[in-house]
Each structure stands twice: as structure tokens, then as C-alpha cells.
């Protein structure tokens, strides 16, 4: 690719960097991730609460589930998450809690709760036996369904069974909320004294994606046939054009496994070109194109 | 406008003067699946394994075996890069047909979190004992104070009952004062508690 810098597997594997030195390549391959505070109860014989700053990755909507990644050498948290019947709380810190989050990025001795050091107030959760963090605007109460050991990390699949949200956030505009949380871990740098400093970012702009007629009325995830039907209903396509496109699509399905078929190749070209003209809003050109096959 | 946001713009009616993309997708270097030339970063991956989730979703564990990055990104300021990609799914707005409009966000601010002496010099994912050592090395704690705090931490590991509860409170309070840089209070705490036992 012109203007592209290529990295081989050996180079990627060598990106394990010194703390505070994240070059453009390592940054670009990772990109910012939403930050959270993971609360767990110490597995026996432990007797405390552990709070750890880590990153969040969504899994499914139904049921609502998230995954969290923990380095395997964080034995306290790994032990807590892999204990039978393990539960946890995922709390979302705000931009005003960078110090508290930083403190929870360190591992306190067993029996010491990082939240107490960070001056974060714990409160009772409703659905799990692990406390929530009162100072955080959102707390997700979770059960741990599965822990996958993957190379250097343990990945916990957590299912949300309850949640709490600060009432005040229910009435804020979305663009105000995204300027408060979540904080996204960007990188870490060295300060003038050679100390590592983490940098986080917050969202700023919200961009609506193009909608109908450049996509289905219903939004993402709907199928081609419904999109064409929408275009016909709103007169972007005549009935004849709609039927022609649907006939192409149905024939395409019939020939899908016939990889050597010249008709399949022709249909692929036609469907691609017609779809491209639609998403670019080139309606006159679309009508001319379809008329060639009427 | 950067590459990621420009891709979305190509579909927007206000930006229809862009010529249609007719070039084939560029081949990847390592895997047999092409990349997308317009995207600033392409990660070439192999599927290591798949886990079923709740009967309707699969989680794919992908190992990155190759990658390409737009060379223009490599020398750029990080703040300018985060303003272009990655894009984040923020929410869905409702359109006039009752369907949804996906809304995406990009980062716009870069905030520096507090660092040493509020945490270890090495930052995140370090043990707090390392932080105590750093505080000692940089004279935020005297040798006697450092020794006292380390003794409490060491004893906490084996103590039980009321002694454990007492040590837990002492250590928590000392680390809390250090984390919030209340040095006078920290010295007083270590001195007073040390004298007391």
C-alpha cells in the first residue's frame, strides 16, 4: 500500500515498550480504551475489597455483558475473579477522579482497599455482594460467567445483573455527559523528572452517521431487501427498478456457491455498482444505469 | 479532515463530489484478507479461538500478525490523532421513520493524570510497596518513616484479629495521606502511630 508503514509479526511482538515511552506505532495499534474501576471481594482467606483501574470492552446486549482484562500477574484480582460464584462491580470514573483512578491503578497490599486510599466511598450494591463506588456516576453490578486465560492476561466475561446511575446524569445532554465520562486511556508519557504519567481523553464531538436514503430507515443491521423497499416506498426507486434489484439479489443468492459462474460475477458487479450509486446519492446516474437492464 | 472521519463524509450528501471508490481492496501482507486503503490503521489478524457467548454471540480472540499504518500519522501530535480516530459508538438517535441514526464520537481532550509522588514513579500496574520505596528514595519519607511503614505492611500479611484491623487502618491512612500529598499529616501520622506502638 502506498504511504503505509508495514509492521511484521516480529516488529509487533517487539512493541512491548518501556513505561512512558509509547511511540506513534504502538499508540496507533492500540488506540484509546474506556477506563473503569473494577471492584472485587477478596476470595478466602482474604477479607477485603479490591479496586483496580482497568479497561472495559463490551460483549453482548442481551444479556448485557462486558469483558475486563487483568494481567495474570495481578494475582489478587485474578484469584477474586476466578473464585466460585465470583461477582464484581464495574464503576465508571469521571474526569474529576483522575487521582483516585491513578491510585487504584496500583496494587495495595492484601487486605488494604485501594478505594479507601483513593478516598472513594463504597456503598452497598443491590444485586451483588460486592460494593459499588458511590462517587462514580455509573456502577454495573455483575456476575462473572467465565474467565479466559489468554497469553499474558485473564479476560473475565461479566454479565450485568443490576446497575445504578446518578440521578443527576439522567437529565444531562448527551454531549455534556461524554465530556465527563468515560475517560479513555490514551497513553503514558514521561514527565520532566522521568516519572510515568498516564494520559486520558474524553469525547468531544458527536457525529450522526448518514441515514436513509443512504442506509435503511431502521438503521444499522437491517438487510438489503428492506433498504430497497424503503427506497421504493419513498420513490427513490420506481417499482420496476426495485423489482429488478430484488431479482438480481435473489439470483445472486442462488448462485452464491457457484464461484466460477460468469453470471455470478456479472451480478456482483451490478449489485455493487447500484448500491454504490445509492450511497453516494447519484440518483440520475442510478436510473440511467438500471435502465440499461430494463 | 482525517482518514477515518473522511470515510463517513464520503457517504454524506454534502460531500458527494468525491469520486466513487473503484480500486480493488489492497492486499494485506501477511493474511489472505485485504485491508481497507482509506483506513489509517489495518490490523492483519488470525483467529486463535472462538468462545460462544450466551448462545447468540461469538467472541473472537484475534492475534495481530501484521499491521499497516498511514505514514502520515507517525509524526503527528497525539491530540490531533485522537480527534480523528478511533470513532466511538455513542448512541442511536431516532429518525423520522422510527429507525435509528448511529452517532459516533471522537476524542477531543487530552488530560494528564497525577503521577509521582501521588503514585509510583512507574505509574499504573505497580505494587504500592514500590511506591513507598520511591517516596523513600526521593526523601518524601525519612528512613525511619519508610521503615515503620514497611514494617506495618509486612506485619499486616500475617496478623489477625484486632492487630490486623489496627495495622490495616494505619497503612490505609498513611497511603491515603501520601496519595493526596498531605505530607505534614503523613509525617505526623507515622510519628504519632509509631510512638504509640
Describe this structure in words.
The complex is a heterodimer of chains A (294) and B (197). The two termini of chain A are 39 Å apart. Chain A has 10 helices and 12 strands. Chain A has helices at residues 9-13, 24-30, 75-82, 98-103, 114-117, 174-177, 224-233, 239-255, 262-279, 283-291, and strands at residues 4-7, 33-41, 49-60, 65-71, 87-92, 106-107, 122-123, 132-133, 138-150, 153-165, 184-190, 196-208. Chain A folds into 2 domains: 9-201, Pnp Oxidase, Chain A (Roll); 224-291, no CATH class. Chain A has 294 residues and is α+β, with helices and mostly antiparallel strands. The radius of gyration of chain B is 27 Å and the shape is elongated. Chain B folds into 2 domains: 3-105, no CATH class; 128-196, no CATH class. Chain B is 36% helix and 25% strand. In chain B, α3 (128-137) packs antiparallel against α4 (143-156), α4 packs across α5 and α5 packs antiparallel against α6 (183-196). Chains A and B meet through β1, α2, β3, β4 and α4 of A and α1, β1, β2, α2 and β3 of B. β6 of chain A pairs parallel with β5 of chain B, so a sheet runs across the interface.
Number of separate helices of chain B:
6
Percentage of helical residues of chain A?
A: 25-40%
Strand arrangement, major sheet of chain B = 1-2
Strands of chain B, count: 5
The amount of helix of chain B comes to 25-40%
CATH level 1 class label of the largest domain in chain A: Mainly Beta
Structural category of chain B is alpha+beta
Structural class of chain A: alpha+beta
User: Secondary-structure element sequence of chain B?
Assistant: HEEHEEEHHHH
Principal-axis shape of chain A: elongated
Write down the overall geometry of chain B.
elongated
Query: SSE string of chain A, helix = H, strand = E?
Result: EHHEEEHEHEHEEEEHEEHHHH
Instruction: Write out the CATH superfamily name of the largest domain in chain A.
Output: Electron Transport, Fmn-binding Protein, Chain A
> What is the rounded Rg of chain B?
27 Å
Number of domains of chain A: 2
The number of helical segments of chain A is: 10
- How much is the average pLDDT of chain B? 87
Using only CA atoms, what is the Rg of chain A? 26 Å
Average pLDDT of chain A works out at 94
How is the main sheet of chain A built?
A: 6 strands, antiparallel, barrel
Number of domain modules of chain B: 2
Amino acid at each position: 500500500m502506498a504511504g503505509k508503514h508495514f509492521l511484521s509479526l516480529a516488529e509487533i511482538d517487539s512493541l512491548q515498550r518501556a513505561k512512558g515511552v509509547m511511540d506513534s506505532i504502538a499508540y496507533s495499534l492500540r488506540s484509546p480504551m474506556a477506563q473503569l474501576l473494577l471492584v472485587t471481594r477478596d476470595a478466602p482467606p482474604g477479607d477485603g475489597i479490591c479496586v483496580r483501574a482497568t479497561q472495559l470492552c463490551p460483549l453482548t446486549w442481551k444479556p448485557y455483558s462486558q469483558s475486563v482484562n487483568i494481567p495474570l500477574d495481578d494475582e489478587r484480582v485474578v484469584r477474586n475473579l476466578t473464585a466460585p460464584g465470583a461477582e464484581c462491580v464495574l464503576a465508571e470514573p469521571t474526569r474529576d477522579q483522575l487521582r483516585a483512578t491513578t491510585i487504584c491503578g496500583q496494587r495495595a497490599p492484601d487486605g488494604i482497599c485501594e478505594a479507601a486510599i483513593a478516598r472513594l466511598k463504597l456503598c452497598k450494591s443491590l444485586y451483588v455482594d460486592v460494593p459499588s463506588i458511590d462517587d462514580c456516576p455509573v456502577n454495573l453490578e455483575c456476575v462473572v460467567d467465565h474467565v479466559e486465560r489468554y497469553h499474558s492476561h485473564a479476560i473475565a466475561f461479566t454479565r450485568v445483573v443490576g446497575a445504578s446511575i446518578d440521578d443527576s446524569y439522567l437529565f444531562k445532554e448527551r454531549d455534556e455527559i461524554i465530556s465527563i465520562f468515560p475517560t479513555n486511556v490514551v497513553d503514558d508519557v514521561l514527565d520532566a523528572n522521568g516519572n510515568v504519567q498516564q494520559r486520558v481523553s474524553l469525547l468531544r464531538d458527536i457525529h450522526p452517521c448518514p441515514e436513509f436514503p443512504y442506509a435503511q430507515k431502521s438503521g444499522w443491521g437491517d438487510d438489503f431487501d428492506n433498504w430497497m423497499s424503503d427506497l421504493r416506498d419513498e420513490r427513490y426507486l420506481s417499482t420496476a427498478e426495485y423489482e429488478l434489484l430484488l431479482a438480481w439479489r435473489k439470483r445472486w443468492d442462488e448462485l452464491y456457491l457457484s464461484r466460477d459462474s460468469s453470471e455470478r460475477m456479472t451480478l456482483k458487479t451490478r449489485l455493487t455498482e447500484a448500491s454504490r450509486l445509492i450511497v453516494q446519492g447519484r440518483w440520475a446516474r442510478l436510473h440511467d444505469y438500471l435502465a440499461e437492464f430494463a | 479532515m482525517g482518514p477515518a472521519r473522511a470515510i463517513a463524509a464520503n457517504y454524506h450528501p454534502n460531500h458527494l463530489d468525491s469520486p466513487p471508490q473503484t480500486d480493488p481492496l489492497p492486499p494485506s501482507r501477511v493474511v489472505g484478507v485485504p485491508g481497507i486503503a482509506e483506513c489509517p490503521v489495518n490490523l492483519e489478524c488470525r483467529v486463535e479461538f472462538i468462545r460462544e457467548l450466551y448462545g447468540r454471540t461469538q467472541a473472537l480472540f484475534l492475534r495481530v500478525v501484521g499491521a499497516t499504518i498511514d505514514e502520515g500519522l507517525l509524526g503527528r501530535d497525539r491530540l490531533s490523532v485522537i480527534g480523528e480516530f478511533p470513532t466511538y459508538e455513542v448512541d442511536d438517535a431516532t429518525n423520522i421513520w422510527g429507525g435509528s441514526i448511529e452517532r459516533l464520537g471522537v476524542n477531543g481532550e487530552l488530560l494528564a493524570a497525577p503521577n509521582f509522588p501521588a503514585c509510583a514513579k512507574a505509574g499504573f500496574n505497580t505494587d504500592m510497596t514500590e511506591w513507598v520505596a520511591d517516596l523513600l528514595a526521593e526523601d518524601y519519607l525519612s528512613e525511619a518513616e519508610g521503615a515503620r511503614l514497611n514494617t506495618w505492611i509486612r506485619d499486616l500479611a500475617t496478623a489477625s484479629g484486632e492487630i490486623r484491623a489496627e495495622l490495616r487502618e494505619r497503612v490505609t491512612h498513611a497511603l491515603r495521606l501520601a496519595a493526596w500529598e498531605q505530607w505534614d499529616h503523613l509525617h505526623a501520622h507515622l510519628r504519632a502511630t509509631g510512638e504509640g506502638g
